[in-house]
Each structure stands twice: as C-alpha cells, then as structure tokens.
Amino acid sequence: MVLELAHIQLPIIRNYGAEHGCYLFLAFQSAEQGRAWLGRMLDCISTAERRPEPRPACLSVAFSFAGLEVLGVPPNTLASFPQEFEEGMARRAEQLGLAGPSDPSHWELGGPSNPPVHAALFITAPTPEQRDAEVAVQRTLLAEVSGVDEICAMDGDTLPGWREHFGYVDGLSQPAIEGSDVEPIDPHVPKVAAGEFVLGYPDEEGEVSKQPEEWIATNGSFLAFQKIYQDVAAFRRFLDEAAAKLELDVETVAAKLMGRWRSGAPLALAPTGDNPALVLDPHARNAFSYQTTDSDGFTVPIGSHIRRMNPRDSLTDSMTNVQRHRVIRRGVPYGPPLPEGASDDGVDRGLMGFFFNASLSRQYEFIQQAWANDPKFNGLENDVDPIAGSHDGNGEFTIQHRPLRRRIQGLPRFTTVKAGAYFFMPGISALRALADGAAPTS
Q: For the chain, what is the domain count?
C-alpha cells in the first residue's frame, strides 16, 4: 500500500532539514482563536512529499488531548482516542518509570504545576539562521491572531559528527516504513508496516487501527515528547571508575553499556576494538543479529542500550514481535557540549526526543516498561537500561563473560526527564477540518 505522502506531515516520514529546531508550545484561549491561527498557518505545514533543494525551514503541528478538546472536536471523536493519550504522559508517570528527579512534579512543561499545553509547533531548518528567521515569522503570526499564547520555547541543535552529549554517534538504526518513497540507506534495517506509525494503514498483523475515528486518524500519528537532561560529568566519572574496577579501558566500558562503540561501530561486528569504518558502510553497520552469534551476550551485553531498544532476534523465549514495538525517533540535542576533561559546569544539556508511533501503549510505553526499565529484561536480575533507565543508585549492569560474569553495581542516574507530553499529529485533511470547525458530529 502506497502512503499518501502529500497528506502526511513531514517528520513522521522524513528527518528532512532537521539539524536545528525550535519547538513552540502553545495554549488556545478559545476554539475560535485556535482555529484562526491554524487556518492562517495551515498552508505552511510541510508534508512528507520529497522536498526541494535548497532545503527550506519546515513546520509541523501536533495537539494534546486538551488542545483537541478546546478546538471543539466533537465528544464522540474525543471518546474514540485511546485512554493513554487522553490521560497524558504525566498521569502515566508510574508506568513509565518517571520517578525521583524525573517525576512530573519537577517538570518545566507538561507536569501538574505547569500551564496546560494545547499545541506544539515544530520549526526545523538546516541552519540556525533559517530556523530563527522562521520562528520570527511564526511569532509575528501569533501576535496578529491573538488568543494563542506561547507557553514556552525550546531550541535544539545537532552536535558535530551527529553525536549526542555522551559522545555516541546517534540515529543508526531507525526503522524504515513500508509504502513510503524513503528507501532505507541500510539494507539490514527491515521495513516495518506503515500502520505501525501512520494511522489508516495496515500494521504488522494486517489490521487497521480503529482508534481514533477515521476522519481525524487517517494519515496521523501519535508522538511522545520528552526533554531529557544528560548528566555528562557524572557519566564520564562513572566510566572512569568502572574502567578502573573492571580493569578495562574507558571506551570498552562505554561500548558495553551502549552496545556500540562511540563511533557507532557495533560491538557485534567489532568485539575487540573500535572500527569507525563500519559506520561509513551502510551494508555493514547493522549487518548483525544476536541469536545466531551472540545469544548469551558475551559480545553485546544482554542489557546494553541498543539490545533493549531493538532486541532484533534475541527474545527467543518470548512471543514478542519486535516489529510491533518500534518507534520512529526524531529530535535534536540541546545545550552546548561539555568540553573533554572539564568538570561539571552546571549548564543544562541533553536531548529533545519525539517518538512517533500508532499506539502509545503498545509501542512507546511498552518500550519504557518492558525493555528500558524492567530489571528482569530477557533473563536479567537487577538491570535496567544503563544509559536511559530510571536509576535510583541500586541498579546493576551485567557484562556476560567467561568464566565469570562481571557486574557494575550502584549505577547512578545519567538522564532526567525535565518535560514531557503526548501529542497527536493529524494528517493534512484533518488539519483543514479542525481549522474550519467542520468536524463530523456523528
């Protein structure tokens, strides 16, 4: 089935021109004012059709459940949305492992003490200058329309070498979507049925989701947003201390935690030392599985980050279909890098992540519960995700090894969620209906 790319918002399908982003979070004072704003900027929304060169700034928009309610979406349509979307991320904090410093009570956005957010406007561009110019245009429009308030804005910028703040090359195994014209650069990343990410199309089981109603669902996608602080200084201290205890070098410990060397080279293909050339070869960097060559985790630890986020073929004792639990991750780092060798400078830095999926419960929430934060994941005993897990200082990381496994105990928290929300990104036809106030009433 071919996707209707002209009716799907850009970031669901393409990570195009997204090196620099500004994310405006908005609140509507009334349905009329929200619709007026949406109608004015609707023709600026970027679709998933192939984009021209030189690359322009791109805009996309998504709504919270409260935002759809304020816009006047009929009650029967609102009732057709899944419960997790209606409740929102903050109310589902316990299921998501959002505790301690990551508890929503501490958030900058989306928490119980924060102003309600009705919409998110994503502005991305290849250069900071293009982004900032488009942000100025959109703020002028907001001022002209009135009644649409900017709650906050968050900027993000790609770091040199496409690395994140802990130093790892990022984004090497994004799933490809069947029916799109985006061919995977990497032939070893299997295509996933479109219905796992875009509503209105068959999923991996050949079914089309019945939630929400068709008029608003078709060509749309749910997304989970999080602003995630990264404690770089703590991560570097931990690597130094663990390397000394285990009598390993720092880069090997970093590779064991992630499942890839910081260059992006997979441990599965470079078990004894880094090989950056693998990352440059799309025919090699994902040419591995776990069950046939590393079922016991002696090369890539069972609890490593990439083995949790994409278990591939390793869940042999489970009926889990991994393809039904993938998400498409967009977003960029925020904040300046911490220079090598520098002590903690107190600067806020991390990642702004946007996770697209057709089912928040089956995909995003499942990954957080069953893969990232389950201490007994795939036969482990007391291990949560070593990079992104909800650590309280009592967790462990197991390195499978002969003759005896190695354990790193007392893992500290390296990441803290500082903001979060669930949004729905409608297709173009649904956006027009929302702007016109012409949604079906039955």
A: 1
